Backbone:
């Protein structure tokens, strides 16, 4: 049984619901923080739980190189390896591999590439990308990008049961009460990985429609929109997302990959997207760029050196509750590790709070009012 | 009124007690983690509270350069600036300034030096070191090293009441229940900074005796032993510490500066030292060197790549309770921020647990048994 979306409220094409996974339920629409190497940089798993993170994204390409899929598999899969008992989604590695423009060679069989770390040669094919993702054992895995024709046939579906955590989500040692997978009803929890298809087609509406049709023909438990938010005008992204959404099944999860700013995640959640991910909140945090209810704030600026106010006076995260802008600015200017830790916690909280607000609106059937990022 | 030591149990020259400070009580013997720039690198203040840290050391030299004493003073002093409502001790800056061998010039008035950051010229004298430490507002401040003859006269004692937090330890915003200063009895809490004298004299027992006598003649609420653990043989350190201890008042706090390994802090606590500090647990952690009940462990080693056991199976810190050596090794090898965070939390816990064990022994009047670092 695959992950499934239990829709709870709708408003236009937008909806709230629960994504039922082998590792607990995920309230949707959801923003998924990125834990590239099995860690959201600087933030421990108990803090992620406290923030209310219910699903993380990890990068297959990076984990493939370090520590390697065999290590993760032997350690019981990514959940157990990183001691994270909630849901995980892995990308296919395709995006990163195709980005290695000087280090890769594409053929019909797959992509030969060299590691960005040490130049060692590797090969990723659709089959290999699946094998690696099965070894990592995420709840949701992604088809190898640019390969939506990948045959998710019966044989492959059997392999999905070879995940390291087998038929149950056992844990090595206790994680605190917050980590317990939650299931409301008596319905059984899914016991296998779920492979999502990816709709490509660039910025051509017709190609997107065709890709959507062919991906749906194969049949997946969820569909992603890939290849957007890569530099094209924002209005064009919006247009392509909305036209593609019309071709996707309304009763299955819809995942917009690599998006985006607080304004964008709020907007697309209201357009009917259920899942999004982006490195922006975590990466920006490490560069001192913070998202607040009053807009973006660059904490490195000297104007904050003696500013006693909270980073975001409207925010109830533990950073804003405890520390002043002056202290955060000092930590950043002095290159203190804690700057990156605290900035990341705040930005993640801001993103998750944004999605909570959007879910409340959709449930209430109200149009977005104040206090929300507008696109 | 100065900080005072309330001795509770003794065993030979060793004792347990409570150091009563304007910002709460500190169980002694105590190990003080180092928060050089007003932050224990990578560890947020709430985690320090959870670890049971009751007093932190901060470095005057570093804070003098960044963010500068005027900023800290305007922000209400170091406690409020860093949102830390427990006790703080600042060093005088002397050790760092005298270490800048190529960048400083010593005269009778003080030390002219250039910042290690940008080469900007500065000057520290005994008077200036006091002025800076008063601006920072730590509970315990230190005499400018090599200047034990500094006249802590009546006029200077008045200045001690000019600390930014004034006569009470007010906080800007709540910090969680753990942060509340604790006082048992009805005795009033000290309301001023306390200046500790420092006994110098290198490795010459007679010079140490003379320095101790002259420092005691001036009269301080506490005495530090400085200038040791700087490369001399360990046996010599022990000899000098123990002979110096004989000359210090038994009813006042005795602080051994810059010490040491887990074995050393356990040993000196049993020799009658009440306070110690060292960058070792935090600095070693950032380099992957971890202290465990089974000895030192270098987590970077490939032998831990698939080691599912806890870092220290005998440790109840939240790192050992949750993560495997394999995961910690991966984080370190992949240069993940979280490696430094988690390693630091574990090492600090190990140091604090070591001191808790030693205190228990002293109270019980028992000789050290198993499970403790031996020197």
Residues:
């Amino acid at each position: 049984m695959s992950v499934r979306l239990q829709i709870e409220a709708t408003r236009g094409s937008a909806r709230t619901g629960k994504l039922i996974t082998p590792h607990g339920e995920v309230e949707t629409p959801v923003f998924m923080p990125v834990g590239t190497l099995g860690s959201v940089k600087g933030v421990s798993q108990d803090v992620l739980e406290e923030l209310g993170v219910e699903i993380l994204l990890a990068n297959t390409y990076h984990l493939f190189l370090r520590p390697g899929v065999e290590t993760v598999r032997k350690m019981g899969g990514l959940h157990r390896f990183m001691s994270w008992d909630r849901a995980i989604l892995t990308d296919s590695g395709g995006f990163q591999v195709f980005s290695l423009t000087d280090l890769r060679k594409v053929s019909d069989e797959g992509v030969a590439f060299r590691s960005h770390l040490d130049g060692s040669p590797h090969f990723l094919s659709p089959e290999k990308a699946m094998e690696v993702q099965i070894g990592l054992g995420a709840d949701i895995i992604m088809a190898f990008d640019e390969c939506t024709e990948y045959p998710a046939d019966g044989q492959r579906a059997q392999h999905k049961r070879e995940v390291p955590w087998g038929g149950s989500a056992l844990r090595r040692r206790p994680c605190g009460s917050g980590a317990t997978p939650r299931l409301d009803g008596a319905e059984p929890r899914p016991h296998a990985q779920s492979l999502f298809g990816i709709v490509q087609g660039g910025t051509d509406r017709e190609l997107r429609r065709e890709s959507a049709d062919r991906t749906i023909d194969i049949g997946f438990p969820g569909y992603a929109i890939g290849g957007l938010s890569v530099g094209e005008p924002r209005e064009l992204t919006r247009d392509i997302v909305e036209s593609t959404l019309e071709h996707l099944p309304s009763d299955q999860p819809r995942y917009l990959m690599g998006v985006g700013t607080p304004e964008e995640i709020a907007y697309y959640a209201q357009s009917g997207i259920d899942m999004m991910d982006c490195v922006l909140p975590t990466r920006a945090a490490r560069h001192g760029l913070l998202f607040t209810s009053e807009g973006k704030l660059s904490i490195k600026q000297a104007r904050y050196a003696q500013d006693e106010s909270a980073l975001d006076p409207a925010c109830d995260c533990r950073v804003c509750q405890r520390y002043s802008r002056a202290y955060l600015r000092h930590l950043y200017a002095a290159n203190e590790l804690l700057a990156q830790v605290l900035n990341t916690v705040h930005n993640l909280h801001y993103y998750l709070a944004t999605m909570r607000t959007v879910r409340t609106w959709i449930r209430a059937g109200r149009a977005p009012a104040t206090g929300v990022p507008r696109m």
